[in-house]
């Protein structure tokens, strides 16, 4: 019988995720499956929680990977924290802010939004004004907007909420592992990420963390969480304590991969990893500049790991991406929504953020364009 | 730095899942990650759909793996099919029937149940009477009740529903890949499974299939699916058609594993695989009988892949399981709910169902008891 997996060639993944995966992470995925209640596995779970707490800079006890991709992390945060009729403010400047609005609305939240032009950041002053007019149960924002490459001022927004009862919810899908995140210092109450961006693990898990007051909100719900699979009040009994009550079977081998991916980041050193992202970002921008390719986002709020670049005049969007993939084994990303056909999204996420990859892409673009 | 993954010893997984994983499936997990929109990956997705349709014996176009574990499959079926106030009948004779009740209730369904003693099957005649009294939007049952080892009469219940507007929803978490399932012949409208049972792939994905009329019910909803992550009306646009619209990033490497696991089953031949399960089940029962260990479930409705056995008088439940794990590298499962402390659950799922494993367990039990 023909096997559809043979062969799978190595592609340099320079799109908006998944990113390149280190061979030790791939090797971890293929270690022997053991039971989800095996003491050895419980030890690995505990180690992952400690790794995540370290990288999130938090003491939050509820710091675990959810058994789904990054979007399941978003779903987990909203479905646990929101009850019908709760007023929620969502700050939107791209696809993933819009996704938050969709998720929260489906759950019956009363959603207000503040919208900012795609490619520009959330303006803290406008958030401050909005908060002066009305109080919210939750304010939510995307840290690193993957659809545009913009960094939003999470720490500043967190400052506005300190001393209030409002919970601060942050999407860190693209930022986690690629730039500094300090949950406790910034006053973040709930955060989610994905494994396939700067953690450089294949997609399939969503690291989340909830502050004690966010957990208290979940435990004080008037109604059960309307999602059995993602109900944190039950999931914590598997991830915490001494009895480890079975809820659903954990994605064992994926968790091996996440452990190893976090291990690599902590071994290299958090600051070194962030510096590597920034240095390769700068090299990429310089290289693109020489090719006459300019950036969508102003330097002041550019993400290092997600670079939105204008498609040069005369270049065929899909044809160029296809040629890069077929002839040069490099994947870059297309634009989304209003930016489709106008930009490419070049990822320098995690293991991808290496000088040799920047160089390879610049040479390939030169050849293709 | 110490690495929590080193070493992970091989355990013979004879519990209620996860099951033993073939080395070719582990190898598949560690193949190079490629993009979720890469044409090569789209080809693998299409191949998985065909494998699943073959093994489910269905022409259902919507036959895909959901990006979560088996319980996410349960959640997907209910959250897409149920609208608030819908009358739903759930047939319960174990933990997983109860879980269905919990999931459906959280979603606002009006749930009626028929309860049967744990360790005995659903009685079709009682279902028939119930259906004569009241009509339901959905009737739901677990095919192979993992908590007890009982096989429920899915084909017979399906017969009762033919020609009605009632949708038939089946939990095939433990049966899929280990015994015959014929969706189209049996009139099943929605089914879900998990990868870590008889498919012998690590946990992390939930194969599902929806009939055309189930899809029509989802598309005709008055309200949006209250779960963005599992909304099939959006997910099908990624799994079907020519444009393949991004919804969430698929769990790429887990899907390699699922492909390879299904490949092995289809290569060995479906009938041969089911026969292997039955033969090893019989050998296990005979071996246990010699040790004076008897079965919970009557032979007429025993599952081959999940064997519930009475804990022998004088044996310490936890101590025996711990000794098997530590001294013999064999995992078996504990009882759940009212059967906790009374039974062990011995899995012969997928790749685990081999004569050498049966023999190893019998010898180990002899040594430990």
What do you see in this structure?
Two copies of one chain form a homodimer. In chain A, 57% of the residues are buried. In chain A, the strands form four sheets. A seven-stranded mixed β-sheet of chain A has the order 2-10-9-8-5-3-4, with helices on both faces. In chain A, strands 11-14-13 form a three-stranded antiparallel β-sheet, covered by helices on one side. The first copy, chain A, has a two-stranded parallel sheet with strand order 1-12. The first copy, chain A, starts with 11 loop residues before the first strand and ends with a helix. The first copy, chain A, has 369 residues and is an alpha/beta fold. The mean pLDDT of chain A is 98. Chain A has 13 helices and 14 strands. The longest helix of chain A is centred in the C-terminal third of the chain and has 21 residues, at 270-290. Chain A is globular and about 60 Å long. Chain A folds into two domains: 12-18 and 269-368, Aspartate Aminotransferase, domain 1, CATH 3.90.1150.10; 24-266, Aspartate Aminotransferase, domain 2 (3-Layer(aba) Sandwich), CATH 3.40.640. The interface between A and B is large, with 75 and 75 residues.
Short description:
The structure is a homodimer of 369-residue chains. Chain A is 41% helix and 15% strand.
